From TrEMBL:
InterPro entries, per database record: D-isomer_2-hydroxyacid_DH, D-isomer_DH_CS, D-isomer_DH_NAD-bd, NAD(P)-bd_dom_sf
Protein name, UniProt field: Phosphoglycerate dehydrogenase-like enzyme
Residue stretches making up the D-isomer specific 2-hydroxyacid dehydrogenase NAD-binding domain: 118-303
CDD domains assigned to the protein according to its UniProt record, in alphabetical order: 2-Hacid_dh_8
Keyword Cell membrane: no
Pfam families (UniProt xref): 2-Hacid_dh_C
MF terms in GO: glyoxylate reductase (NADPH) activity; hydroxypyruvate reductase [NAD(P)H] activity; NAD binding
Cellular component GO terms, alphabetical: cytosol
PROSITE patterns assigned: D_2_HYDROXYACID_DH_2 (PS00670), D_2_HYDROXYACID_DH_3 (PS00671)
Alphabetical UniProt keywords: NAD, Oxidoreductase
Keyword ATP-binding: no
Domain of life according to the entry: Bacteria
Length: 343
């Protein structure tokens, strides 16, 4: 680690201005030696790479394997101004003792905000009501006993991931009971369900339950686990059958976590509603029923940072480069041992 490390960019060229606006560039100027005109995603720069101590990466950056590292003998840290590092960081990076950091924590906030908005609107049945309105049906009148509104709901959070934890924290003031299912969660952190599968959460806490219990008890299930071989179809046909009539499924994680065909059947039958920012396949074919069902909202993978939010990734990455230069641990450090169960 040096006082003013040589930083080389490997950022998507069209987004550099959004990821690194002027104030963040100024911070980088003060902390590091870098050339804004050199960007490995815009063209090869072997001389700069040979001097690089820190690589500032983003979506679409080259794979950092043994061959890449042969041209970067001084590299000590890969700082990713985006979420998952699985697309570009190989075992060779860890074998060389190079530090890895990701801005997934920064990316998690907009996803959690999207989820909160989806929870509120889905609980109001707002999407179906808006389409009904366009068809001439005014749903303004109260219907006695209708099961709408977030207050009093049981919300099931699948995965105590960065996004899942933020959602749990945001729900603290919403008067809901929160259940969480995650085989890796520390029972000491969440209250465990009492024998019998119940469990009243209060004070903004979440109750740790198994996934089947979560499916049976939740009014709204929101999916935040990473896409891994073992989470493929985590919500399969059997578990979707466990959901109560009128339940809502929200997926901002990855499409493969849910059996799309089974979910489509339930939504087409009007038994379940869904808000899907991610799908399997993605995008869905234009004639897919999920795109036209009145009780389903599909958005095109927009929950993560976009537009003005891109600077959140840049700010997180620049802060970690500042920490690196100061000899401090990286906030977004990704340990090799944790990679297998991370997004
Ligand atoms: N829609 C978007 O634009 C968008 C943006 C960012 C992230 N995502 C997705 O959101 C999800 C969460 O991202 P993150 O960065 O918070 O994830 P993360 O890397 O923090 O998740 C890791 C955690 O997931 C939990 N987990 C692992 N296996 C599990 C299982 N079988 N069941 C339940 N929980 C399990 C563990 O607690 C683990 O520590 C991921 O699927 C990610 O791809 C989507």
């Amino acid at each position: 680690m040096s006082d003013h490390p040589a930083v080389v960019l490997a950022l998507p060229p069209d987004l550099v201005g959004d990821l690194l606006p002027a104030d963040l560039r100024a911070r980088l100027d003060r902390t590091a030696t870098w050339d804004p005109a050199v960007n490995l995603q815009a063209g090869p720069a072997p001389a700069a790479l040979a001097r690089a101590e820190v690589l500032l990466t983003g979506w679409g950056c080259p794979t950092i394997d043994a061959e890449f590292l042969a041209g970067a003998p001084r590299l000590r840290a890969v700082v990713h101004a985006a979420g998952s590092v699985k697309g570009h960081v190989t075992d060779a990076v860890y074998a060389a003792g190079i530090l890895v950091s990701s801005a997934a924590e920064a990316n998690a906030r907009p996803v959690a905000e999207y989820t909160l908005a989806a929870l509120v609107l889905a609980a109001k049945r707002a999407f179906g009501a808006a389409r009904d309105l366009r068809n001439g049906h005014d749903g303004h009148r109260h219907a006695p006993g209708e099961a709408t509104g977030l207050t009093g709901c049981v919300v099931g959070v699948v995965g105590a991931s960065r996004v899942g934890r933020l959602v749990i924290a945001m729900l603290a003031d919403y008067g809901v009971e929160v259940l969480v299912a995650d085989p890796y969660a520390d029972p000491a952190e969440f209250r465990a369900a009492p024998p019998g599968g119940g469990g009243a959460a209060g004070g903004g806490g979440a109750t740790l339950v198994d996934l089947d219990t979560l499916c049976r008890r939740s009014d709204i299930v929101t999916v935040h686990a990473p896409s891994l071989p073992e989470t493929h179809h985590l919500l399969d046909a059997r578990r979707l059958d466990l959901l109560r009539d009128g339940a809502v499924v929200i997926n901002t994680a990855r499409g493969a976590l849910i059996d799309t065909a089974a979910l489509t059947r339930h939504c087409a039958a009007g038994r379940l509603d869904a808000v899907l920012d991610v799908t399997d396949p993605e995008p869905l074919p234009l004639d897919h029923p999920l795109l036209v069902l009145p009780n389903v909202l599909v958005t095109p993978h927009i929950a993560g940072v976009r537009g003005r939010e891109l600077r959140l990734l840049g700010a997180y990455a620049v802060a970690d480069i500042e920490r690196y230069a100061a000899g401090l641990p990286l906030r977004g450090a990704v340990r090799h041992a944790d990679l297998a169960r991370m997004a």
